[in-house]
Amino acid sequence: MVVNNRSTAWGNFDEHQPPAPELIDDCVHCGFCLPTCPTYVLWGEEMDSPRGRIYLMDLVGHGAADFDQTLVRHFDTCLGCMACVTACPSGVRYDELLESMRFQIERHHTRPWRDRAFRRAIFELFPYPGRLRLAALGGWVYQRSGLARLVRASGLRGRLPARLRALESLVPPTRLRDLLTRPPTRVAAVGERRRTVALLTGCVQRVFFSEVNAATVRTLAAEGCEVLIPRGQGCCGALSTHVGRRREAVERARHTITTFEAFDVDTIVVNVAGCGSAMKEYGRLLADDPAWADRAATFAAKVRDVTEVLAELAPRAPRHPVRARVAYHDACHLGHAQRVRAEPRAVLRGIPGLEVVDVPETEVCCGSAGVFNLLEPEAAEALGRRKVDNIRSLAPDAVVTANPGCLLQIRRHLGEHANLPLLHPVELVDASIRGRGLPGGT
Prior knowledge:
Blueprint: H1 21-25, H2 38-43, H3 50-61, H4 69-76, H5 83-87, H6 94-108, H7 113-123, H8 129-144, H9 147-153, H10 156-159, H11 162-170, H12 176-180, E1 186-187, E2 195-199, H13 204-208, H14 210-222, E3 225-228, H15 238-243, H16 246-261, E4 267-270, H17 273-279, H18 282-285, H19 293-302, E5 303-305, H20 306-312, E6 324-328, H21 332-335, H22 342-349, E7 354-358, H23 372-375, H24 377-392, E8 398-400, H25 404-414, E9 422-423, H26 425-434
Parallel strand pairs: 2-3, 2-4, 4-5, 6-7, 6-8, 8-9
Antiparallel strand pairs: 1-3
């Protein structure tokens, strides 16, 4: 059966953007994806591999399977890291298939009430920076009061449910000045203006990693970019898309487009891999909406990761040496989903004295994967420990990656007392331009 209209029902799928049969048929079951799939690496189960999950989609499409708990579980355990897309010699668009499948699951499957409640709590908090700041303030009190040490020393944390234990462990050290920081709305280019850009400040990024945003603005300005930071920007919808909450994702995409359309810029700059990946796909997300399809495609065409922008611009600001050995970890939604791999490495290697080394098993996810490390904490922990073991084998002076979720995940598994700096690539470039040496990191 071949269905060319992406809004045609088939089998047990409804008519709204089901997984396309022609994309399913692209999979020739060669198995090249298996060694790169985190869940297959962990468990060796066929149905927890991309090949197996595509087979399950085909069964649903032919009416031979339904959205029961067993089937849904195989898709809940998928990290959506897209390592399989990179590995596939047939060009299977597993990213599109998974997104469509998760939208279908959320419409046709009723989750247990505890799962629904936990997911709702996540999405009532993380996409709202104001609420996240209040939660972070609570985290600051929790850490500074000694309560965190007491919870851990008493063994109470080990008795928490796995999801709550993961949430507690991922809270980063919080500084009050970061919670109170508000970026300017415009920063002029240093010297002759080469480009006008608008910056997405992110949700988790602006609350817990405001120093990354500050470094991004300083670096872009130093390289001749006028930087605009729109007020009123909210969540881009990346997390919602990642777990199948389509209506929410669409609403947030429309709001983001409307906010940034008001500014006449050459480029929309993102310094969060997951956000950039979602925003570059707005054209596909809104393709069926005549009022938004063209606007979304125009917006998406302007989106660039900050390392792409820096790689495109010939360096103008002098770089000072940063004498250090850094382990570069490919954030999945930058390396696999956006296929941006060479640019961050080139930008880092442009810093005098900096040695950049790749983490072994670079294609395997660290286990962060949006909110996967909260929803599936056991698998995420196994992957996090595996990633940290590979990092430690390099004996680096710092770890560099382009996604806040990866930074939090790696920090957790390095241990509470680890003093290894964890940095975004732009922080190193900023430090080099300013002559500051290796930053301390998060």
